[in-house]
Amino acid sequence: MSSSSVLPGEIILRDATRSFSIRADQARTFKGLLLGARAEGPPPVPALRRVTLHISPGETVGMVGRNGAGKTSTLRVLAGIVPLQSGEALSGGRMVSLLELGSGFSRDFSGRENIYLQGALYGFTKAQIDERIERIVAFSELDHFIEVPVKTYSAGMFLRLGFSIAAFLDADVLLIDEILAVGDEAFQRKCLRRISEQIAGGTTVVLVSHDARAIERVCGRVVVLDGGRIVFDGPTAEGLLHYHRLMGTEHGGGESVRSTAAREIEVTDVELRDGAGRASTVFRTGAAMQIAVVLRTRSAVARPELALEIRSGNGSRAFSTSTEIQATPDGITRLVFEIPSLALLGGDYDVSLAAGEKGVDAAVDRTVGFSVATEPGAEGIVDLRGAWRVLEPAQVAQ
Length: 398
What we know:
Elements: E1 11-20, H1 30-35, E2 45-55, E3 60-65, H2 71-78, E4 86-91, E5 95-98, H3 111-121, H4 126-140, H5 155-167, E6 173-177, H6 185-200, E7 204-208, H7 212-218, E8 221-226, E9 229-235, H8 236-247, E10 257-258, E11 265-274, E12 282-283, E13 289-297, E14 304-312, E15 317-324, E16 332-339, E17 347-357, E18 366-372, H9 393-397
Parallel strand pairs: 3-7, 3-8, 5-6, 6-7, 12-18
Antiparallel strand pairs: 1-2, 1-4, 8-9, 10-18, 11-13, 13-16, 14-15, 14-17, 17-18
Helix pairs in contact: 3-4, 4-5, 5-6
């Protein structure tokens, strides 16, 4: 199959194989060259072992696995940075990759000059970059630093510039490798929102990340790599569960931050679940959500109560409720708060829990974060979407 027969946004790997040598070459002395001597060392390390993968135009694929599983090598092969030793790698349309911070940048150029340089490397004309540059600069939030040589940039500033360029170059395929782990949380959320917009526009996205929340939020499919081979390829929820089992962390969804303060009633565990009872940290508007809580009572409390609060990403309260706790002989109480239809719009949220005596404000004991996938046509926190209708003239007169 030739590259001309591949659809824009389509990706094909067929029996892709690649190994890397870690053998150190002998110093290049004149004597060494004459004798042809080579240093001994370990055999080449296989990065990809006959990997076959097909991604259709517009698909969003998360790629996960242990360190050294072959994730980055796969993206570099797709981007044309690393050649295959055997097999085939094809992609259709314009591909934009964000694989390493600052890759392709000229360190003596300013941020603005590097925008034009990167655009030219991806085949854009100066006029096409002129149309986009103000949006790129605004998204990066670098302000006057955009005129400063990038050799003075921090890792976070490189991320802002690199992602901002990639986000506005109208790619058919966008490859992103782990760089969203750099930078502040607010900008990471902004990046994920922009990726969601590109997905809505039909861009094929391949995202490598150890952040399960990022994968769940933007990817509809997960590929798990281990030892250079694909060991799972399927829906996101099942794929992340397979990955967590591979890593020995089955309860990947629902990890929480807890208080270290001593208290009479302790929230020992909290887990967020979907309508089927599976651990999850990403939900869709209108879907069912369960908040499973385990409490331990250490000493008697007159009127024990559990308070639950949901806050938006900026810390504002979206919802709060409370319930009385029934004491049990072993001091362990298990509760589930069931939300049949989650009325939150796209964004990042926190569930905070506090237990104590009714009427006495208790400090937060546990906090766990979750995300709601962004959907077109609505913005804000609460889902109040309704239906518009046009009034007839007779109705207006009434």
